[in-house]
């Protein structure tokens, strides 16, 4: 139901923004789309952190979420097809799964192996585009890959400094979530098109 009301809410807000000005349909549609994205993200964030609060997982969810976003910033990857699907997936990724992995203690060599695995996959597969956002520019893709590697390396470099078991586990978990979302096997499993720019150029 919420996914059906978001466009209506966005349209009302956009009309309020332009109430004293005339605007063409294209401009209105662009602003309305931006408002929709904002509303969906705010609602999704509230839902995720309410679920986290219910399970006493605010800090754990925050660690996973921030780690995931740092890696994802330039590596992109899969998106859910609907706002409801995105919200449900986010609750599972950032609240439910961390609830079960937060107490896992990792040995030093396992941490190193996982970190290398993350960096290799980021170096090989980022950035990953989607059908709606194909990455045409080869130079831009290269820059984004470099930035993704740097972001991931800097995040993983924090692990020996932090030296707190549950935070280390959840930093690695958040990073691995993003690796899953850029990996071609995930695209294939979900029957989503990979390297979309190749299919258009």
From TrEMBL:
Q: What name has this protein been given in UniProt? A: Putative AgrB-like protein
Q: Name the lineage.
A: Bacteria, Bacillati, Bacillota, Bacilli, Bacillales
Task: Give, as one word, the top-level EC class.
Answer: hydrolase
The UniProt entry's sequence similarity note says: Belongs to the AgrB family.
| One annotated Gene Ontology cellular component of this protein | plasma membrane
What is a single molecular function from GO for this protein?
peptidase activity
Residue stretches spanning the membrane: 48-71, 83-100, 106-125, 146-164
According to its UniProt record, what is one Pfam family this protein matches? Answer: AgrB
């Amino acid at each position: 139901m919420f996914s059906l009301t978001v466009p209506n809410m966005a349209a009302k807000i956009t009309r309020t923004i332009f109430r004293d000005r005339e605007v063409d349909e294209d401009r209105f549609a662009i602003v309305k789309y931006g408002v929709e994205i904002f509303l969906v993200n705010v609602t999704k964030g509230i839902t995720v952190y309410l679920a986290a609060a219910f399970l006493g997982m605010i800090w754990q969810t925050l660690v996973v979420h921030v780690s995931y976003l740092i890696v994802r910033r330039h590596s992109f990857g899969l998106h859910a097809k609907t706002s409801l699907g995105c919200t449900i997936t986010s609750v599972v990724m950032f609240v439910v799964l961390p609830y079960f992995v937060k107490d896992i203690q990792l040995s030093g060599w396992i941490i190193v192996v996982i970190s290398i695995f993350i960096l290799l996959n980021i170096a090989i597969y980022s950035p990953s585009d989607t059908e709606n956002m194909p990455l045409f520019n080869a130079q831009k893709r290269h820059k984004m890959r470099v930035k993704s590697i740097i972001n991931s390396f800097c995040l993983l470099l924090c692990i020996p400094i932090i030296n707190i078991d549950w935070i280390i586990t959840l930093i690695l978990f958040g990073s691995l979530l993003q690796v899953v979302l850029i990996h071609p096997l995930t695209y294939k499993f979900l029957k989503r098109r990979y390297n979309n720019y190749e299919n258009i150029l």
